[in-house]
Structures are given as C-alpha cells and as structure tokens.
C-alpha cells in the first residue's frame, strides 16, 4: 500500500477546492484511506493519519472513528506519537464517552515518566478532559508533582489541580499543604497558576477563604514588586511588567478582602499605588486599572480610595475605545447607589455619552442618567433626557419615556413643571409610552385643581397640532370633557388665554370620532367627552345628534355607549347632571405603583378598595335607586355607594379575624386603567321597565368574572343560585395557568365579613397544569341573609419552578346579581 499523503499536502489539496461539495468529496476520499490504514494496523503512519483526522475534525467533519487510535498512540513509547495521541484525546474524547476511562492507566504511567515533557502532556490532558473518576484516581500523582522543584511541571500541576477541584471539590484539602510554598516561587508561570489555584479554592470553600487571608501581605508584596520592578523583556507587555499576573492577584485580593476589615486595610495602600502608577495610554494598563477599580469597590476600602476608583472610571468615559467607555458606564451604574455624590461629579460626561453613535453605550448612558436624577438636578437632567427622547431611535423611546415619568413623579419641583414634562413626553413619544401612563396623568391632572384651566388649554392646543399620538389624544379628550367650560370661558391665568367657542371644541372632538388615526379606545374617550359637555355647554341639541348617530355604529363598544347616553337624554334626563358632574380628587393607594382607579362608563372613579371614601352626595332616595339601576353592570362601581357596609373599618377587622395571617395593610390588586374595556358587558339599559333591572338580569343568568389574573395564574368565578335557599350563592372557581411550568401545591383560601357565612369545598386538584391545558375547580358557598354587597379577600399559595409563591387580593366587583 502506498504511503499516505502528509498533513501539509492534505491542507494544500483541501484549500484548492472551489465548492463545498468538492471539499466534501476530498475529505470522504481521505477518510476512506485512513479507515483502511487503521484496519490494517499500520503503526508506521498511524501518527500521520490521526494528525490528518484532527485537522478534518477542526473543519467540522466527523472523526470519532479515530478515538481508539489516539489511545494506541498514547501507549506508544515515542514522544511524537504521544503528543499527537494526547492532542487527539483532548479534541475527540470527553467524559461522556466510556473510552476515556481506558486512558487512566496510561496517564498514571506518564505522570511518573522520567521525561518532563511527557509528564506535561499527561497533566495537560487530565486538566482538560479528566472525568471525576479519573481525577479521584490520579489526584495523588498531581499533588506529588505540585511539590516538585521543576517549575515547568509545577505550573501545569497547579492548573490540573484546579480542574480536579472543580470535578471533585472534596479533594480540595489534599492540595492544601502543597500551596504553602507556591507564592514564594520566582517563576512567573508558577506564580500565575498558583494564584488561579488559590482563587478557585477560596471561591469554593469559606474555610479555605479564612485560611488564605493570612497570605494577603505576601500577595501585596508580589504586586508591589511587579509595579516597582524595572524593564524585564521576558515579562514586559507594552511597558508593563506581567499584566496577566497583576490582574490575577488583584482578583484574588478582591475575594480575600470582601467583608473583612483587616484584609481590606492591608491592601488599601497597594491598590492606591496601582491606581496612580499604572500607565493608561495602552489597553494593558486600562485592564489593570479596571480590575483595580472592581477590587476597590468590592472590599471595605477607604472613602478616598473609592473616589479615586470612580475618577478612574470617569477618565475611561473620555477614552476613544468604545469598549472601555461601555465598561466604565456599566461599572458606574453598579456603584451609583453606594457612591452617588462621587458619580455625580461626572454627570456632564455621562450625559455626553447619550450622543454616542453606539447603541449599547447610549442605553447604558440613559440608564445611568436616570440613576443620577435627584431633586437638585431634576430640571437640567430632564432637559437633556427630553432632548435625547426627541432624537433617539424608536427602540429607546419606551424605556426613556417610562424613566422620565418615574423621575418626574418622584422629584417634580412643581405641579406645573410635572404636567408640562409629561405633556412634552406625550407629544414627542406618545405612541411608545406604557399603558398606565394615561390613567396616571389623568390622576395627576385631577388632583392639580389650580392647574385645570392651564392644563386643558395646553392639551387643546396640542390636539390641534397632532392627533396621531393616541395617549395624548385620550388625555386631551378626557380633560376637555371634564374642564371644557374652563377652556371656553378663558380662565387661564398661567398663560395668555385663547378664545375658543363651544362649536370649535365640539368640532375637534367630532373630528376624533371620524379620524382614521383614532383607535376604538380613543373614540370611546371622545364620545364620553362630548357627552360630558352636554352639562357644561349650551349646545345640547348638537350633542344629542352626535350621540344618536353612533347608536348604530359597527363598533359594539361605541354603539353601547351611545345607546346608554341616548337613554340618559330621554328617560333619565333629570339624572344626567349628577352622573356627568366633575370628578372628585382621586386618592392614591400605593406610593410606587400606578394609581388604582376603576372604569365607570369610560370615566374614572376612585376605587371602592380605597379606605378613604368620597363624601356621599345627598340626593333623594328614589333618584339614588335609579342611579344604581342604571349603572348596574358587572364591571362598574356605583357613584353613590349605598350598598357598602356601614362600618368599613370593622369589616376589615372581621376579615382579619377570619384569616389572621392575611395582612390588610397591603394595597389591593391593581384595578384596570380607564380605557374602553375589551370585554363587552351586558347592555346596561336592557329591560328597563317599571320592574327593577336586577331581576331581569338574574333571570338571564349571572355573568362570570375574573377575580385574579397575575403572573400567569388566572382565577375566574362563575355563579349560580341554590334552588332551596335563594340567599345562598354558589361560586365555582376555575384556576388556569398560562406559564410553561405547572403550579404545584396550589391552595385557594377565602374570607368574608362576619355578616356572611362561607363554606369552602375541596378542590379538584392541587396542581394547575401549564399552558392552559386544564383547570382546577373549587366550589364556594356563601350565605348572605341580609343581601349586602359581597366582599371577599382571597389568599393564593403555590409552588412555581421550585419557588414558593404567595399573594393576596381583594375581590369587590362581584356582579350585583350574585348578592341581591
């Protein structure tokens, strides 16, 4: 058989291939020749064939049939064969294949070989792909080589020991005696690998960490010698002595000094020397400085040293290298909470990074800019961030708008500035703001009583300029409906009032109803605004005509609103002023979350969950009943809450008595934002006659409701009446799970005030299947002899993805049919 071609010739031949198919054909032909040679046990050219096979493996072609040939080469006595054999083993074998166990004896023999280079090959292979079984069998040999005087073997043995510790952590103590003299070695290679070994041991064992803290002075001495040593051609990299070893020592010092005062004190001086004496003109020096900064910020360092570290990061921000600027911004973002004032000094440089062309740097700079906002710089920072919002890419607008909203809410110097800032965001990035921005801004405007005239005038002007930003249009429509009389009367004192007639205002709102840019939600806002103006303007006939037109709209929600508003004009005209009166001030129930407001015919009302109720409106009893009849839907809150318990505080105490571990101090579940609901409630005016509305609805069945929908868990209630006793409501809960993992150990608990009686039956299961593949059902029976409005507090506990979850919620929006 002719001699196989050499590796160099094979590489040259493969590189001449013009297509992938031609290269594949060459590889297959050569693989066939190599297989034939292996079958014939050709020892002469086995090394050459395995070398060619490794090259093919590097190109991505299968080479597993050469695994056993690698073992034969390892067993050979020739160094060239062993070298290729061990290289092949590292590339073609791993601990998932049982073949690697056949190597254990060969590696053990080579670890005791008389030639250091053969021992080095065995150490490299064991440190690269040794399994836990191999590491247990050969750890003794590795530990023996770690104590040898040969620096070539010691550095390889130290790295191999790192792999052994990772695979078998309990063998860590075996290497402890050998580490005593490692740091006294002069050879930089041994020092480097020794520091890596010590770092691994400290990270994996608190006991080792305490043991090695006594080495801090020795590490400081090594680092000082590296800084002060003169030029050494063997270790010099861009004028710095062995930067790789310096970085490793700084990393180990960071681990040793964390949460330890004595160790931190011992390394403060050397860290200051490194920070001030390292050359920053080359990337090598910047790498050392960055590691120094991380160490300073992680240990219990002095305040002056921390300021020095932040100043280094500030210099990084001026570097031309984008990667260094990104690293500096990321590090400053981590430290801004602990060293806020020091980071503030670099505020102008950070803001300049918002103009960077690199999107990653811009995002980090934006996040850091928001972290730097406080009450002293809010005006200047918002000016820069709003300018950034005007010119940034669409991918940044949503996050930037949310950040501006949060910062303005937290640090606004005045209500006028707050309103102006949010309106600026809505006009420039209205399409990108979060869904809760509309109700939040409405709540802000409602509570700023002295700013109503100014706000409605500003929003009216903005509406004339642009109707494409839907959140802006929705807020404007709501404000015009509420405060249209202030707009027409020209009562604005903050700026020059504009002259607007009633017809001009109605023209704008009617334009929103027919505009192609308006969404169904926006049209609902506009129609409700027009309806409100019927009590504020004199053009009632025109408003009646507009409302009646939309009684036949193809949009069911808009049609329903129009039909209900038409009924107000006809049968309930005496109630219209009370229904459409101006909104009271909304109370916030959470300091950091969105204001809890609920939907009332497209308007916003204070949540019934609030502990502070608005003062009741004094009206005749029959008019109050008419109001309740009119607004008796399944997702609305009565304006006059006559069915609330007379003592809300004691009711809360009764709930607390029933479920002692349920805290009543937390806020209830967030209510929906004031937008047009997607689900269609029953027509509110169906069946209006001399009989009460509720009886007709009850005859048609009680509509279901969603009691809880959070983190993928959805709880729905369905209702029915017990035939023998109409005072008993039977509620069936249906729990579904839309996440990708099952919810196990599911427990549903409920509590009601003591005027009710509750019976909770056993659930169908305690596992809620993932991806809505099934539901868990449970029956609740509630006895309500006094026919009071039903209130319930629920507690949910379950395990999801291995973590226990517990949540509380109040359910107060039961359909009136369920308790009347």
Automatic annotation (TrEMBL):
<dbReference type="InterPro" id="IPR008153">
    <property type="entry name" value="GAE_dom"/>
</dbReference>
<dbReference type="InterPro" id="IPR011989">
    <property type="entry name" value="ARM-like"/>
</dbReference>
<protein>
    <recommendedName>
        <fullName>AP-1 complex subunit gamma</fullName>
    </recommendedName>
</protein>
<dbReference type="InterPro" id="IPR017107">
    <property type="entry name" value="AP1_complex_gsu"/>
</dbReference>
<dbReference type="GO" id="GO:0006886">
    <property type="term" value="P:intracellular protein transport"/>
</dbReference>
<dbReference type="Pfam" id="PF01602">
    <property type="entry name" value="Adaptin_N"/>
</dbReference>
<keyword id="KW-0968">Cytoplasmic vesicle</keyword>
<feature type="domain" description="GAE">
    <location>
        <begin position="700"/>
        <end position="815"/>
    </location>
</feature>
<keyword id="KW-0653">Protein transport</keyword>
<dbReference type="InterPro" id="IPR002553">
    <property type="entry name" value="Clathrin/coatomer_adapt-like_N"/>
</dbReference>
<dbReference type="GO" id="GO:0030121">
    <property type="term" value="C:AP-1 adaptor complex"/>
</dbReference>
<comment type="similarity">
    <text>Belongs to the adaptor complexes large subunit family.</text>
</comment>
<dbReference type="InterPro" id="IPR008152">
    <property type="entry name" value="Clathrin_a/b/g-adaptin_app_Ig"/>
</dbReference>
<keyword id="KW-0813">Transport</keyword>
<dbReference type="InterPro" id="IPR016024">
    <property type="entry name" value="ARM-type_fold"/>
</dbReference>
<keyword id="KW-0333">Golgi apparatus</keyword>
<dbReference type="InterPro" id="IPR013041">
    <property type="entry name" value="Clathrin_app_Ig-like_sf"/>
</dbReference>
<dbReference type="Pfam" id="PF02883">
    <property type="entry name" value="Alpha_adaptinC2"/>
</dbReference>
<keyword id="KW-0472">Membrane</keyword>
<dbReference type="GO" id="GO:0016192">
    <property type="term" value="P:vesicle-mediated transport"/>
</dbReference>
<dbReference type="InterPro" id="IPR050840">
    <property type="entry name" value="Adaptor_Complx_Large_Subunit"/>
</dbReference>
């Amino acid at each position: 058989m002719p001699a196989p071609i050499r590796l160099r010739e094979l590489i040259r031949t493969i590189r001449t291939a013009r297509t992938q198919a031609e290269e594949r054909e060459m590889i297959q032909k050569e693989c066939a020749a190599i297989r034939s040679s292996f079958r014939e046990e050709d020892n002469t050219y086995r090394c050459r064939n395995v070398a060619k096979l490794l090259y093919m493996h590097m190109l991505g072609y299968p080479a597993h049939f050469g695994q056993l040939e690698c073992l034969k080469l390892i067993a050979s006595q020739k160094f060239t064969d062993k070298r290729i054999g061990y290289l092949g083993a590292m590339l073609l074998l791993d601990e998932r294949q049982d073949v690697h166990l056949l190597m254990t004896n060969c590696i053990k023999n080579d670890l005791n070989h008389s030639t250091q280079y053969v021992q080095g090959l065995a150490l490299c292979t064991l440190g690269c792909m040794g399994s836990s079984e191999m590491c247990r069998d050969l750890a003794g040999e590795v530990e023996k080589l770690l104590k040898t005087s040969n620096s070539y073997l010691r550095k390889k043995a130290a790295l191999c020991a790192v792999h052994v510790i990772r695979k078998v952590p309990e063998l860590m103590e075996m290497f402890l005696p050998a580490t005593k003299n490692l740091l006294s070695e002069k050879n930089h290679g041994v020092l480097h690998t020794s520091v890596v070994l010590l770092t691994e041991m400290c990270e994996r064992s608190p006991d080792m960490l305490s043991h090695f803290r006594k080495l801090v002075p020795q590490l400081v001495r090594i680092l000082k010698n590296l800084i002060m040593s003169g030029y050494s051609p063997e270790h010099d990299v861009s004028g710095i002595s062995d930067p790789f070893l310096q970085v490793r020592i700084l990393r180990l010092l960071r681990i040793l000094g964390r949460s330890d005062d004595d160790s931190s004190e011992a390394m403060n001086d050397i860290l200051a020397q490194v920070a001030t004496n390292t050359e920053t003109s080359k990337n090598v020096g910047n790498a050392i400085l960055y590691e120094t900064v991380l160490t300073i910020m992680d240990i219990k360092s002095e305040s002056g040293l921390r300021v020095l570290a932040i100043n280094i990061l500030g210099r990084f921000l001026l570097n031309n290298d984008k990667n260094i600027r990104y690293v500096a911004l990321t590090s400053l973002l981590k430290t801004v909470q602990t060293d806020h004032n020091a980071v503030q000094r670099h505020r102008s440089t950070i803001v300049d990074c918002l103009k960077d062309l690199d999107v990653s740097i811009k995002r980090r700079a934006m996040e850091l800019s928001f972290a730097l906002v406080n009450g002293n710089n809010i005006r200047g920072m918002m000016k820069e961030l709003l300018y950034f919002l005007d010119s940034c890419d669409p991918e940044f607008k949503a996050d930037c708008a949310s950040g501006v909203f949060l910062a303005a809410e937290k640090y606004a110097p005045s209500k006028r500035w707050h309103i102006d800032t949010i309106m600026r965001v809505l006009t420039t990035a209205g399409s990108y703001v979060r869904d809760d921005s509309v109700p939040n801004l409405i709540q802000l405007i409602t509570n700023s009583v002295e700013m109503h005239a100014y706000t409605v005038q500003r929003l009216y002007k903005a509406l004339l300029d642009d109707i494409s930003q839907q959140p802006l249009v929705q807020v404007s429509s709501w404000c015009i409906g509420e405060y249209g009389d202030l707009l027409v009367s020209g009562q604005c004192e903050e700026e020059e009032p504009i002259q607007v007639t009633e017809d001009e205002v109605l023209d704008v709102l009617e334009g929103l109803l027919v505009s192609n840019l308006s969404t169904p939600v926006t049209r609902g806002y506009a129609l409700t605004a027009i309806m409100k103006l019927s009590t504020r303007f004199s053009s009632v006939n025109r408003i009646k005509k507009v409302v009646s037109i939309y009684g036949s709209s193809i949009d069911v929600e808009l049609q329903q609103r129009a039909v209900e508003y038409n009924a107000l004009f006809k049968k309930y005209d005496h109630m219209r002023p009370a229904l459409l009166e101006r909104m009271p001030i909304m109370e916030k129930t959470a300091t950091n979350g969105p204001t809890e407001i609920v939907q009332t015919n497209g308007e916003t009302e204070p949540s019934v969950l609030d502990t502070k109720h608005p003062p009741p409106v004094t009206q005749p009893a029959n008019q109050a009943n008419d109001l309740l009849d009119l607004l008796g839907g399944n997702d609305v809150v009565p304006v006059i809450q006559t069915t609330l318990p007379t003592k809300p505080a004691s009711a809360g105490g009764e709930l607390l008595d029933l479920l002692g571990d349920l805290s009543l101090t937390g806020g209830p579940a967030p209510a929906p934002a004031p937008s047009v609901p997607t689900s269609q409630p029953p027509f509110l005016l169906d069946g209006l006659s001399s009989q009460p509305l509720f009886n007709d609805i009850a005859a048609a069945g009680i509509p279901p409701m969603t009691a809880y929908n959070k983190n993928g868990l959805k709880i729905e209630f369905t209702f029915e009446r017990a035939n023998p006793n109409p005072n008993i409501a039977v509620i069936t809960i249906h729990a579904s799970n839309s996440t990708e993992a099952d919810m196990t150990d599911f427990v549903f608990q409920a509590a009601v005030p003591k005027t009710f009686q509750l019976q909770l039956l056993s659930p169908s299961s305690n596992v809620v299947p993932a991806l809505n593949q099934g539901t868990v059902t449970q029956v609740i029976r509630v006895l309500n002899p006094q026919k009071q409005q039903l209130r319930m507090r629920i507690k949910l506990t379950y395990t999801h993805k291995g973590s226990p979850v517990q949540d509380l919620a109040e359910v107060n929006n039961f359909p009136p049919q369920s308790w009347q």
